Automatic annotation (TrEMBL):
Coiled coil: none annotated. Signal peptide: none annotated. It comes from the Bacteria. This is Xanthine dehydrogenase molybdopterin binding subunit. Pfam families: Ald_Xan_dh_C (PF01315), MoCoBD_1 (PF02738), MoCoBD_2 (PF20256). Residues 27-133 form the Aldehyde oxidase/xanthine dehydrogenase a/b hammerhead domain. NCBIfam families: xanthine_xdhB.
Amino acid sequence: MSHLSERPEKPVVGVSMPHESAVQHVTGAALYTDDLVQRTKDVLHAYPVQVMKARGRVTALRTGAALAVPGVVRVLTGADVPGVNDAGMKHDEPLFPDEVMFHGHAVAWVLGETLEAARIGAAAVEVDLEELPSVITLQDAIAADSYHGARPVMTHGDVDAGFADSAHVFTGEFQFSGQEHFYLETHAALAQVDENGQVFIQSSTQHPSETQEIVSHVLGVPAHEVTVQCLRMGGGFGGKEMQPHGFAAIAALGAKLTGRPVRFRLNRTQDLTMSGKRHGFHATWKIGFDTEGRIQALDATLTADGGWSLDLSEPVLARALCHIDNTYWIPNARVAGRIARTNTVSNTAFRGFGGPQGMLVIEDILGRCAPRLGVDAKELRERNFYRPGQGQTTPYGQPVTQPERIAAVWQQVQDNGHIADREREIAAFNAAHPHTKRALAVTGVKFGISFNLTAFNQGGALVLIYKDGSVLINHGGTEMGQGLHTKMLQVAATTLGIPLHKVRLAPTRTDKVPNTSATAASSGADLNGGAVKNACEQLRERLLRVAASQLGTNASDVRIVEGVARSLGSDQELAWDDLVRTAYFQRVQLSAAGYYRTEGLHWDAKSFRGSPFKYFAIGAAATEVEVDGFTGAYRIRRVDIVHDVGDSLSPLIDIGQVEGGFVQGAGWLTLEDLRWDTSDGPNRGRLLTQAASTYKLPSFSEMPEEFNVTLLENATEEGAVFGSKAVGEPPLMLAFSVREALRQAAAAFGPRGTAVELASPATPEAVYWAIESARQGGTAGDGRTHGAAASDAVAVRTGVEALSGA
């Protein structure tokens, strides 16, 4: 076992424990960014001047009326920016734009003594606009050839030969919606300037170092004059990876210009209308199968809705392409990607970061094709799994490690869920109930862990031991409720060999750990855990030498377990506190900077080849649903999940992440329906679902009636911190089983072998129309098209025709 993966005697990792801030969360004692306003004197409040048009050129901006409003202190405009007027890493996001690019785009910001004064002042700012043509929908962007950014193409094998060798060829298209992050805490920042002009920003950000970088270039000052701290976030889900930077820059600019603290917080409607979402996608595809239903070739084009600027759309698209295979071996593939430019908010990172979109495409394809092939959907999926010992690689050329785990979790979830028995019960139920149908679907997940951009795969930490034996750890990761800080406390205590109560964790700050990566890509525990472990190992090695001198033995024979240093083969021991005190008096350094970089990664973005991922997280889910034939309403009766988290660092945290990720994924696929005004009227481009009253989120009523989560046992991951695996994003894709179960339940209203298309999100309305399609025959198993499925062109050829190249 590797040094990084090996666990010592009596580790604190692997112990189920509550979230480190759980008590503060439920009692209301936990502080978030905006809570700090009440502890700060003379705070000014920032409010946006939004233009409610989808696109237009600003021809005049008059602030006089706003400055006359009592309590208004200043109006920030582009003329006030001393550095670079841009809030993005691609330099395509003006902080103060001359051209409005989406409905609700802010062109100026008002600072007021109170939030109400700032609001009234913002309403008084006069903006003259020359309206310009706008593109709102993804379909319109495709029709208008409106694209931006890279257009990667991933190729593997010989696609044309693969189709020539296929017995069955199907073609189709699929468009599916984005998703609102809807974190409980909206975007927030609080900026202050000290007597030396240095800026300190409290920000609800997943990427403090990048917030620091953007603020420094907006202000035109070096990075060491800007410090960013993140106490914690009330949710992030990727929405606070890139988009907090410009908001923090507004607060920092205001503080610089006025010399007073500036508070920035979006209300819910502003957050929904100004911040990006998960990318919606459109896919066109052609797939070939042999006579046994094994995939021979795939040719697809994925179009992501990037919104008005690039943000993170390019890496999101890249990850979508890298995950279109999911758990399936595709010997011949050609997949092209492109980013549509629309006049909507700039879409951004969201849990899974393109992976869910790519994987949804292949799962939708298999769900649609299984009945046409006359094969059970579960069986079709299993036939196409990556297999051990076959030397199979992904379409981008990375060998698939641990392919046996795909089959292992698949079989275990069926055993745990008694799937065979329940399928017989469901068949009997459906035969007896013409107006209500049940279905059970099983889907798997293979999700690559690491940032696609290799440079981001590094982490840092600073660990301090005080004379009394207490320990303070700083690391570069941020806490958004996912339990990262809890795991880091466990990693530090385990590495040092001390009880957990001896360790405390400090808030994430750029002046403690520099140049950090975003807490994203499910890599928080891997990167920061490796760095914390490295720092603690440096300290432990120093202390072992001190202990050896006190115990009269060699350092290699000393072990520190549960806060006591002992020599092997001896009953002599030295308490941790005494050991630390002795080390101090011997002038031994009691602080260490730790560092970790993920080894073995390489990626060529131009050729779209390489091994961008350290390992793959594996999982499987079985979901049973019941659907009402009159309304399309449904309920999730039972969910069984088996998920591979390696050797869990913190099992209670990990199970919570699996449960939460699954429910959030189910929300994306079945409930959450973003809508914009696409008319040519005065509100064109307006987000219609801009409140919880119009945007449906999963709640207790959508929770499975029975929900069983099992972590795969004996699953040590070599080369990862204490043998663990990432858990943040992969469980979201387990929710594919919900959508596929709904598809199968809708198809059960039609003749045997009926194939139906199902919209995404699969709202009750969408399920109802799928049921109606099934009642009319859907798309039958012989490959002909019927009714609502007629838009899906299907070609079926015999094996003889395929082999002859017809």
